[in-house]
Design a protein that fits this description.
By secondary structure, this protein is an alpha/beta fold. The chain has twelve helices and 24 strands. About 25% of the residues lie in helices and about 35% in strands. β3 and β4 form a beta hairpin.
Length: about 475
């Protein structure tokens, strides 16, 4: 039944694994220091309050030990990275695709960004290493008062909104990597949707690491005002190098009363990237926050999208998917913190580990005293197609209120020989049969994606399966 890898349909990784010459208008020296932090802030002509914030964060980063739980991060050498590299001059973000340098434009064209902009999205942002190189929003959304720009621009053009929310959902002292991001952040997306406005069409951002040994530290801040709606989608890739890169982003989402926010991520970092991200939302009265989070690629991922339910009737819906193959550790999951009555949450985690990869679900469900009438459900499904991979579940349930309905279930399964045999008896090759089973396992996730992203997920699974059978 086994089939040689050579017989599998050839798939080409060059759509992602290409790199441009490292020609940058602005690039700091390698290594991290207070001088580098000050230099980044000066390049951006930031107000004093932001520089002060960066310096406090940098000091906390120095004092904060590395996490002593989860994957081993001891090989990270913070002085080995470049913390700011921009192919454009700071503040030179383009609004016309044709104005980008040819190599940068070609990078995003290979990744399908202009096509997505033309056919589907209401706004598109593109970040290349540290620089936001392109940002544009549809005129009809802009007329509704929707703001979609890079976070550096927002600091200058919307200072009152930024200062009110920046660092309030994820403070710099939350963890070591939120401190690092807060010290050296650059780029990212800023979204503000006015009260009662439905953005309707999704907004998209794409983050690309190009240079070797570069850290990317985007900062995303999304505010959905009262009774508004917005869907934000991000994609991430990097070429393969023999040395490591570091991605440590911070995402803050605020859903004011009655608002609805969906945040979708499909990442495909190359397998030399440390992906250490803090993503958190707060949901007020009757608000809904949805995280749809797909994790593929990277050397190590640690990411746990969270929702803090702070208003009566607030809801959280988190769907997290992880796919790990040889040499990869995907440590992901979710957190739902119920601090108000009549709140509800649903967490679904699905993971696949093949060829010796390792996936872990790490989750927190917290119900505070006085948060009566809470309803919460957690489901963890893991699939292990072989005998050399590993999947772990680390659920933490902290229930401090008797008037709560909580369910938790976890299932680890294998691909049955009878399933493969049945599909092969219908004419499928073994590799195609396994691919079909895997996509069926992930169908709950795939159906929540826009069509282009669902097709991309299917392609990436095929790519990972190349050589996995035989």
């Amino acid at each position: 039944m086994a089939q040689n890898a050579a017989e599998l349909t050839p798939l080409d990784y060059t759509r992602y694994d290409f790199k441009n010459p490292e020609t940058y208008k602005v690039r700091t020296a390698k290594g991290l220091s207070e001088e580098i932090v000050r230099q980044i802030s000066k390049l951006k002509s930031e107000p004093q309050w932001m520089l002060d914030y960066r310096l406090r964060a940098y000091q906390h980063f120095l004092e904060r030990p590395m996490p002593d739980w989860g994957p081993d991060l001891s090989e990270i050498d913070f002085d080995a990275y470049t913390y700011y590299a921009n192919p454009l001059a700071e503040g030179d973000t383009k609004k016309r695709w044709e104005d980008l340098p040819a190599d940068v434009r070609n990078t995003f064209e290979k990744l399908g960004i202009p096509k997505a902009e033309r056919e589907y999205f209401g706004g598109v942002g593109a970040q290349y290493d540290s620089g936001t190189v392109y940002h544009k929003i549809r005129e009809d959304l802009s007329k509704k008062g929707v703001v979609f720009c890079d976070t550096d621009t927002a600091v200058k053009e919307y200072p009152e909104i930024v200062q009110k929310y920046f660092g309030k959902v994820v403070p710099y002292n939350d963890n070591k990597f939120s401190a690092l991001n807060s010290a050296v952040w650059s780029g990212g997306s800023f979204v503000y949707v006015p009260p009662g406005v439905d953005a309707g069409i999704p907004l998209q951002a794409y983050f690309r690491i190009n240079a070797k040994n570069v850290g990317q530290f985007e900062r995303t801040l999304i505010i959905a005002d009262k009774d508004s709606k917005v869907h934000y989608i991000e994609g991430c890739t990097a070429p393969i190098y023999s040395t490591d890169s570091l991605h440590a982003a911070v995402v803050e989402v605020v859903a004011e009363p009655g608002a609805k926010v969906r945040y979708t991520t499909v990442q495909n970092w190359s397998k030399n990237v440390y992906n250490l991200v803090t993503k958190r939302a707060v949901a007020y009265e009757n608000a809904l926050v949805e995280w749809v989070d797909g994790n593929m690629g990277s050397k190590i991922t640690m990411k746990y999208p969270s929702v803090y339910l702070k208003g009566r009737g607030a809801r959280a819906d988190i769907l997290s998917v992880a796919f790990a193959s040889e040499g990869q550790i995907i440590d992901s999951g979710a957190k739902a913190v119920h601090s108000a009555p009549d709140t509800s949450s649903k967490i679904i985690s699905k993971s696949i580990a093949i060829r010796g990869g390792r996936t872990s679900y790490r989750g927190l469900l917290h119900v505070a005293k006085g948060a009566t009438g809470v309803k919460a459900a957690v489901r963890c499904d893991a699939l292990l197609p072989d005998a050399v991979s590993r999947s772990d579940t680390y659920p933490y349930n902290e229930i401090h209120e008797e008037d709560a309905t909580i369910t938790h279930e976890a299932v680890v399964g294998k691909i049955g020989e009878e399933q493969i045999f049945y599909l092969m008896s219908r004419g499928l090759k073994e590799s195609d049969a396994i691919h079909l089973i895997l996509m069926g396992f992930l169908a709950e996730f795939a159906k929540e994606l826009p069509v282009d992203y669902a097709l991309e997920l299917n392609r990436l699974i095929q790519l990972e399966m190349t050589g996995a059978v035989g």
